[in-house]
Amino acid sequence: MDFDTIAAISTPMGEGAISIVRLSGDDAIKIGGKIFKGVAGKDLETVQSHTIHYGHIIDPDTDQTVEEVMVSVMKGPKTFTREDVIEINCHGGLVSVNRVLQLALRQGARLAEPGEFTKRAFLNGRIDLSQAEAVMDLIRAKTDRAMNVALGQMEGRLSKLIKRLRQEILEVVAHVEVNIDYPEYDDVEEMTHRMLDEKARMIRQELQKLLQTSQQGKILREGLSTAIIGRPNVGKSSLLNSLVQENKAIVTDIPGTTRDVIEEYVNVRGVPLRLIDTAGIRETEDIVERIGVERSRQVLKEADLILLVLNSADSLTKEDEQLFKAVEGMDVIVIINKTDLPQKVNMDRVRELAKEHKMVTTSLLEDKGIDTLEESIASMFFEGSLEAGDMTYVSNSRHIALISQALHSIEEVLSGIEFGTPIDIIQIDLTRTWELLGEIIGDTVQESLLNQLFSQFCLGK
Ligand code: GDP
Ligand code: ZN
């Protein structure tokens, strides 16, 4: 394909000692050559591909040295974009890396749009859409586990499975097509409802399996939304602080919700938690008291995990009982705090209220019990079954939506078969399934969707 040469700073702004200016396109090496002066007097345009060169970036207008650099020269198609690529490794700060970029732009490169390098890799056939999205996930990966999921996807695991399913569907569609177009050919076996039924069931099962993994995938990517609830003064803020202190808080670029809440991301033994400090926690107010039982139920409904804190140095109150009722049927860990003080709480009643929920005793003041709590959280969500690498995870909400739709069409196929609908009608839903799965790997995707997807990338990727 024919593209102009793009350039961008491809390392995070203000992070790390080395910054890289990346150029991609037909003129990448020529433009690089105009601003680079190698110590050995080498010309970038004549050096071998995939070599790295030491020298200086010179402003061709003033002959002034701008930066000391290492330049990698990579000729297409064996590059990320399949185009000619050069990477200028600068060690100066932001100011000098910016000057290098400006020089490249002045020599004819165009500033890359967000995600444009990855978009080119896709358009030039280097990667498929789900792999491109995996790159995006990788950039945003919040924890090691999330990183492994993204990597697994990058290897094309999901793509492979989707391609296999599409192939199966295509074979059936082709078979039906032949039957419709050439009814007089009796050597083409008639695609019976029974045969179709068998295939459609197999595809349905695979899609259902994929969707089952999606819940875990979503958790890994966005963090388990975790609400800390309890009466005033039981130790909610103390719990939030211990979890944040013990586990390196995860820096996130996910925009906060519009709700009046504070969120902290922490990584607890590989489980990313989005701790939700419900409105009022900071003011030692109580969520039930402040916004009422009905409204707090609404907030709680959105949580994946509830940490319900009790004060064991106090008797249970009506509010405590209300909270237990509000979280019925949810994933709850009951935290019985302040065990360092004389105990007043009726533990029999607590056990009765907690039912099947896990219970952990803590003294947040003395730093006791946090380990056990963390273990409970991790075992609740991993139970050893979520070892990264041996499953296909679907962690992307667009993929999840497409797989659900594909599952819906294949169910239409199955009910069509059940009611004896003519095969050429059933085939419409079958083709639809094929198209929907194709959108995951970018096969039938429209241009507008592409632009929307790639503009989500960080600049320079
Ligand atoms: P919140 O209103 O539920 O957020 O409770 P805070 O975390 O603000 O704690 C209320 C008070 O209880 C503070 O003075 C804490 O220092 C204290 N506190 C928290 N946890 C413990 C504990 O385990 N033992 C004791 N003795 N005091 C605690
Ligand atoms: Zn508090």
TrEMBL record:
Domain of life (superkingdom): Bacteria
Listed EC numbers: 3.6.-.-
Cofactor note: Binds 1 potassium ion per subunit.
InterPro entries (UniProt xref): G_TrmE, GTP-bd, GTP-bd_TrmE_N, GTPase_MnmE, MnmE_dom2, MnmE_helical, P-loop_NTPase, Small_GTP-bd
Alphabetically ordered keywords of this record: Cytoplasm, GTP-binding, Hydrolase, Magnesium, Metal-binding, Nucleotide-binding, Potassium, tRNA processing
Metal-binding in keyword set: yes
Cofactor: K(+)
Binding site for Mg(2+): S237, T258
Chief location bin: cytoplasm
Binding of GTP, residues: 233-238, 252-258, 277-280
Residues holding (6S)-5-formyl-5,6,7,8-tetrahydrofolate: R22, E87, R126, K461
Pfam families linked to this entry: MMR_HSR1, MnmE_helical, TrmE_N
Subcellular location: Cytoplasm
Protein family: Belongs to the TRAFAC class TrmE-Era-EngA-EngB-Septin-like GTPase superfamily. TrmE GTPase family.
Subunit structure: Homodimer. Heterotetramer of two MnmE and two MnmG subunits.
Classification via HAMAP family: GTPase_MnmE
Protein name: tRNA modification GTPase MnmE
Biological source species: Heyndrickxia acidicola
Recorded name of the encoding gene: mnmE
